[in-house]
Amino acid sequence: MAYQSLIFGIAAVLCSGLLAFTLTPIVRVLAYKIDAIDVPRDNRRMHKKPTPRIGGLAIFIAFLLTTIVFCPINSTMITIWAGGGLLVLIGVLDDRRSINPWLKLLVQFAAAVIAVFQDVVIRHINFFGIHIELGHLAIPITILWIVGLTNAINLIDGLDGLACGVSAICSISLFTVTLLFAEPQYALVTAIVAGSCLGFLPFNANPAKIFMGDTGALFLGYAFSILSISGIFKLHAVLSFIIPLSIFGLPLFDTILAFTRRIIHGKSPFSADRGHLHHKLIDIGFGHKQSVRILYAICGILGISAILFTDENLSKAGFMIIVTLIITFIIFKLLKNPVTRSLTGLENNDTRATGNGFASYKEAEEKILRDMEKSGWEEK
Predict the structure, then answer these.
(1) CB neighbours of 113 closer than 8 A, spacing ≥ 6?
(2) 293 and 343 both lie in a single domain
(3) Is 375 strand, coil or helix?
(4) What is the mean pLDDT of residues 98-115?
(5) What is the DSSP string of 209-232?
(6) How far, rounded to the nearest angstrom, does the alpha carbon of residue 177 sit from its chain's CA centroid?
(7) What's the rounded Cα separation, in Å, for the pair 342 and 361?
(8) How far apart, in whole angstroms, are the C-alpha atoms of residue 88 and residue 63?
(9) Alpha-carbon distance 92 to 54, whole Å?
(10) 280 and 352 belong to one structural domain
């Protein structure tokens, strides 16, 4: 039986991945037909040429068709199909012609209400062994979590392949956690989400041929919020409250920073700006692919930490996070310096100015080697 379930699961993931991969070219043509094109008119956008959007439509259709075939119909699936479909619709409209952000927020609340009507609600949490019944706060907290995570994935979508790759990593982390908690029905759904993202990623990786846009980001954020409520929050594990915060720590942290920054500056929390984590990495000199890989790594480590939390061992997870922070800090310092960046082997070898008078990182490395030779060093 376990062997059959494994084959069944692999088939589902392959199905979603292949559907997303084959649907994306069709959606790309549709984007041109309906003029859903992202034109880089300001320095907030990292791409240099007009690029089609609504790529998330391929992700949603691949997910929808695969889950219809492979997953049982229950309240969780109905919620994701109905609420996710509503967000995909508003996402397509926004990708074609930007709509009022408050209208988008209203639709997100409507999608959250759909979840509440399907009884997908956070009724209790467990925090370090303390069981807390939310009572009358259950519905407001549920809506806040759904809307917050929906926006978190959308806001981190700023570099080619970033939101899609982070979503795939979060899906894999969520899949592993739900599998450890013996929740195979939810594990299968998260695996299908991962397959859909990975099938789309070849078209979205730098240089992107298509963006998933609000169409994909809103759907993925919503799907994650529903799956985390059904698969994690309802469990009685000691650290079940911490696990989803760790899995989605990167997009949530970036969203909290963005909202706080905008409110402090007297702006609407939904006004676009150039202050996200990926923008900061670009501004201090990291390349596009470097920035994406760094954020992938952070998201992956947080996912591993979440898996350690399932063992209810705070010390192991905490140790993993501390080690990661130390390594990240050292790598950050090395990569921030144009000369040591070349020595790490992680440079792009591009021809941008390095800040030290070198035309490229390769030239900086060659300069260091020449200086070493002059000082008496010889290659053995």
Answers:
(1) 143
(2) no
(3) coil
(4) 92
(5) S---HHHHHHHHHHHHHHHHIIII
(6) 17
(7) 5
(8) 12
(9) 6
(10) no
State how many domains the chain has. 2
For 312, the 3-state DSSP assignment is coil
pLDDT of residue 255: 84
With 0-12 / 13-18 / 19 or more C-beta atoms within 10 angstroms meaning exposed / middle / buried, residue 133 is exposed
pLDDT bin (cut points 50, 70, 90) of residue 380 is very low
For 188-223, give one letter per residue: b (16+ CB within 10 A) or e.
bbbbbbbbbbbbbbebbbeebebbbbbbbbbbbbbb
Residue 184 lies in a domain: yes
Single-letter amino acid code for the residue at 158: G
Residues 24 and 149 in one domain: yes
Question: Per-residue confidence at 141, pLDDT binned at 50, 70, 90?
Answer: very high
Coil/strand/helix, residue 154: helix
Whole-number pLDDT of residue 202 = 94
- Measured in Å, how far apart are the chain's first and last C-alpha atoms? 59
Please, which residues bridge with residue 126 across strands?
131
> What's the rounded Cα separation, in Å, for the pair 203 and 237?
39
